[in-house]
């Protein structure tokens, strides 16, 4: 399955799609990019004189690129399990180090810890365009295959 095919199967749409490009997805992890646009809805009122990307949006970006995209790839070995009918975040533990400002491009890199019984757990890291780690941690969730 190509990265473009995986991207087309993501169950999100703007303004809640935080994947511009999947660079690589394989059985061990995923890497992709997203650029936060200065006019994104979540900047309005989030620190009105100094807007920063909310941590929940950073976490969602990490989940979409690093966990859901990888989950789609892992389930694609049995095409009867595609598309994903439900996705549920089950746990996350993220540390935040530096802010992400409007207009910044980030890279998300995930490494699979395990995938069993449709539960996927990954180590996920986000870096900014200066290769500085913005946030990192673990995210796990369930992917329920659809028919």
Describe this structure in words.
By secondary structure, this protein is of the alpha+beta class. The protein has a single domain, classed as Hotdog Thioesterase (Thiol Ester Dehydrase, Chain A, Roll), CATH 3.10.129.10. It is built from 2 helices and 6 strands. It has a 6-stranded antiparallel β-sheet with strand order 1-2-4-5-6-3, covered by helices on one side. A hairpin with a 4-residue loop joins strand 5 and strand 6. The mean pLDDT is 91.
Strand content: 35-45%
The rough form would be described as globular
Text of the CATH class: Alpha Beta
CATH topology term: Thiol Ester Dehydrase, Chain A
Relative helix content: 10-25%
Overall tally of domains = 1
User: What CATH architecture do you see?
Assistant: Roll
Poorly predicted regions: none
Largest sheet: 6 strands, antiparallel
SSE pattern, N- to C-terminal: HEEHEEEE
The spatial strand order of the largest sheet comes to 1-2-4-5-6-3
Give me the count of strands.
Answer: 6
Helical element count? 2
* End-to-end distance: 18 Å
Average pLDDT confidence is: 91
CATH homologous superfamily title: Hotdog Thioesterase
Return the structural class: alpha+beta
**What Rg is obtained from the alpha carbons, in whole angstroms?**
15 Å
């Amino acid at each position: 399955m190509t990265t473009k095919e995986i991207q087309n199967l993501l169950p999100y749409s703007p303004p809640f799609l935080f994947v511009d490009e999947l660079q690589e997805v394989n059985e061990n992890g995923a890497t992709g990019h997203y650029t936060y646009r200065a006019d994104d809805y979540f900047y309005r009122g989030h620190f009105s004189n100094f807007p920063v990307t909310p941590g929940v949006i950073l976490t969602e970006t990490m989940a979409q690129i690093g966990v859901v995209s990888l989950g789609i790839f892992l389930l694609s070995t049995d095409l009867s399990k595609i598309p994903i009918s439900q996705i549920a975040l089950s746990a996350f533990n993220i540390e935040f180090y530096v802010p992400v400002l409007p207009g910044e491009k980030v890279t998300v890199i995930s490494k699979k810890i395990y995938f069993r019984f449709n539960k996927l757990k990954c180590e996920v890291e986000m870096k900014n365009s200066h290769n500085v780690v913005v946030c990192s941690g673990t995210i796990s969730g369930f992917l329920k295959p659809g028919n």
